[in-house]
Amino acid sequence: MNQELYQYTLRLADTALILSHRLCEYTSCGPFLEEDLASMNTGLDLIGQAEAFLKYAAEMSGNTNEDKLAFQRNEEDYKNFHIVEYPNTDFGYLVTRQFYMDVFNYFNYSQLVNSKDVTIAAIAGKAIKEVTYHLKRSSEWIVRLGDGTAESKERIQACLNDLWMYVDEFFETDEIHENLQRQGIAADLDVIRKQWHQKVEEVLQEATLTKPEGAKYSLVYGKDGGHTEYMGFILCEMQYLNNRYPEAIW
Amino acid sequence: MAYDLSQEDPTKLAEFQAKIDAEIKIEPKDWMPEGYRQNLIRQISQHAHSEVIGMQPEGNWVSRAPSLRSKKILMAKIQDEGGHGLYLYCAAETLGVTREQYLKWLHEGKAKYASVFNYPSPTWADMGAIGWLVDGAAIVNQVSLQRTSYGPYSRAMVRICMEESFHQRQGYEIMHRMMQGNEAQRKMAQDSLDRWWWPSLMMFGPHDGESAHTSQSMQWKIKRESNDDLRQQFIDKTIPQAELIGLKIPDPNYKFNDITGHYETSDIDWDEFWNVIKGNGPCNKKRLDHHIKAHTDGAWVREAAAAYGVKQKNKLQTA
Fold first, then answer.
1. What is the pLDDT of residue B318?
2. Are B300 and A151 in contact (CB under 8 A)?
3. What are the tens digits of pLDDT across the range A44-72?
C-alpha cells in the first residue's frame, strides 16, 4: 500500500466526515427552516465526499471497508483538520467554520480535479461543484451578518477571530504532502494559501469586517492524528452503536 | 366565539358547495366560507408544524447513526421533513396568515402538531419504527388528502406522498435488518414496535363519533375519509408487514376476520391519547421548548438578514 497516499486520502475523507457530523448535529436548530435544510444539504454533500474518499482508502488498505474506517478507528487514526471539530455553538460559528473551510475546499479541489491520481481527480470533479455552492452560501452569510445589524457585526467578528487559530493548519505542509505534491497528486498549498487569503479579504471587505491576525497556535495538527478536546466527544456519539454492538450489522 | 355557518351568504355558500360536489378545487382567490378557511388554517398549519417538530425525534439519532448509508438516509429524510414543512407553510400562507404568525401560535400553544412526536426515541430501532409506522400512518392519511378540496393543500400532498413512501420503506428496511441481526437487535426492534404501535394508531384521531371536525370537513371534502376508515387501512397494511419479519403486534386480541377481510384489534387507550394531546406526554415540553429556543437563538440572524436586505434595497434605489 502507498502509505502516503492512504494518509492523504484519510485527511480529505475525515475533514469532510467530521464537518458533516457537526452539520447534522445542527438539525432543527437553525434560525429559520430554510437554513436547517441548507445546513443538512451541505452536510449531505460532505458525507458523500467522505464516503468516496473512505472507499478509496479502504481499497488501498484492504481488509476493511468505508464503514469500519468511518466508525471504528481510534481517535489518533482520524486525520481531519482541527477546525471541523469546533462545536456549532451558534449560527455565527457554524457559518464562520463553514466559510473558512469552504474557501480552502474550493481552491483545494480546483487543483485536485487535475490530480494525477485518477480516483482523487474524479472525486474532486464532483466535489468542486458542491463546494462552489457551499462557498457562495457561506460567503453570502458572512456579508449579511457583517453588514447587517450592529449586533450581528460584533458577533460574526468575534466568530472570525475565535476560529482564526485553526486556519494555519490548512497550509502547513509535511513530508507526506510534499512527496505527493511532487508526484502531481496533492495540491500546492502555497498557491492555496495566497488564494485563500485573497478570497477571505475580499469577502470580509464586502462584509465591512476586519481580517483577524495571528499565525500559529497549535502544537499538533489533526492531519497528523492530534486532536482538540472536542474530538473524543464526537467519536463517543459517532461510534456509540459500533462500540456497544461490535458484531451487529445495521 | 364559535363560527356560525348561517352568517354566510346562502347563494355563495350553495355555489361553493356545488363546486366542491363537482370536484372542482378551491383556489386561494376563490370565495370560501370563513369556516372553511379557519378549518384549513388549523389543519394545514398543524400538518406543517408536525413535519417540523417531527425532525426532533429523528435528529436525536442522526449523530449516532451506525453506518454511512444509514446516516445519509436519515439526514436526507430529516431534510425531506423540513421541506414538507416548507411546502405546507407556503400552502397555509395562501390563506392569508404569515409563517411568522403560524409559529407564534405554535409557541403560544394555540396550534398543535401530531401528538405522536411527543413520544421519545430512546433507541436506534425507533428510527425504523418512526419511518415504518409513523410515516406509514401519515401516508395513509396523506394519500387520501391528495384529493382534498383546497388546491394548494392537495398539490402539496401529491409531492409529499412520493417522498413519504420512500421514508416508510427505509424505516421498514431498518426494522428488517435488525430482525435479521443478533438477539440484542431483534429485542431492540420488538421493543420499539411495542412502544410505537399504539401511538401510531392514535395518529388517526378519535373515533368518528367523537371527532370534533369530521362531519363538516367531510362535507367540504377537506377530509375525504373518516378517522376509523383510515386507521383500518393502516392496520390491514401493517400487521402482515410485521409478521413477515417476525415482529409481534403488541395486542393480545388482534385477529383477522375472514368475513370482513379486516384485522380486528383492541381499543386504543383513549385516556393516554387525550392526556398526551393535553400536553402531558413525555416529550411535549421538550419538543416545544427546543423549537422556541432555536427560534429565539436565531433572532439576531433573521434581524441581520432583514437589515442587510433593506440596505441593499436602499443602495439600488440611490444608484
1. 86
2. yes
3. 999 999 999 999 999 999 999 999 999 99
- CATH code given to domain B5-282: 1.20.1260.10
Grid cell in block for residue B134: 409513523
* Cβ B84 vs Cβ B49: under 8 Å: no
SS3 state of residue B238: helix
Whether the CB-CB separation of B194 and B133 falls below 8 Å is answered with no
**Domains of chain A by range and CATH?**
3-244 (1.20.1260.10)
Q: What is the mean pLDDT of residues B247-273?
A: 97
* A204 three-class SS: helix
Instruction: Report the pLDDT value the prediction gives residue B15, as an integer from 0 to 100.
Output: 96
Give the E-state strand segments of A42-115 in sequence order.
none
Give the whole-angstrom CA distance, residue A239 versus residue A247: 13
Q: How far is CA B208 from CA B204, B212, B229, in A?
A: 10, 9, 9
Where are chain B's structural domains?
5-282
Q: What is the DSSP string of B126-166?
A: HHHHIIIIIIHHHHHHHHHHTT-SBHHHHHHHHHHHHHHHH
**Length in residues, chain B:** 319
Nearest beta carbon to residue A241 from set B58, B66, B85: B66
Q: Which of residues 128-187 of B touch A (CB under 8 A)?
A: 174, 177-178, 181-182, 184-185
Give the mean pLDDT of chain B: 95
Residue A40, pLDDT above cutoff 80: yes
The minimum CA-CA distance between B171 and chain A, rounded to whole Å, is: 12
Q: By three-state DSSP, how is residue B114 classified?
A: coil
Least Cα separation, residue B240 to chain A (angstroms) = 23
Reported as a single tens digit per residue, the pLDDT across A131-175 is 999 999 999 999 999 999 999 999 999 999 999 999 999 999 999
> How many angstroms away from the CA of B178 is the closest CA of chain A?
7
The three-state secondary structure class of A63 is: coil
d(CA A94, CA A99): 9
Residues 6 or more apart whose Cβ sits within 8 Å of residue A228: A82, A85, A86, A222
Chain B hits for A245, Cβ within 8 Å: 182, 184-185
Q: Is the pLDDT of residue B229 over 70?
A: yes
* Angle between helical axes of B299-318 and B284-297 (0-180°, round to 10): 30
Q: What is the pLDDT of residue B216?
A: 86
What pLDDT is stored for residue B2 in this prediction? 60
* Start-to-end C-alpha separation, chain A: 29
| Closest-approach residue (CA) in chain A for B302 | A31
B249 interfaces chain A, CB cutoff of 8 Å:
no
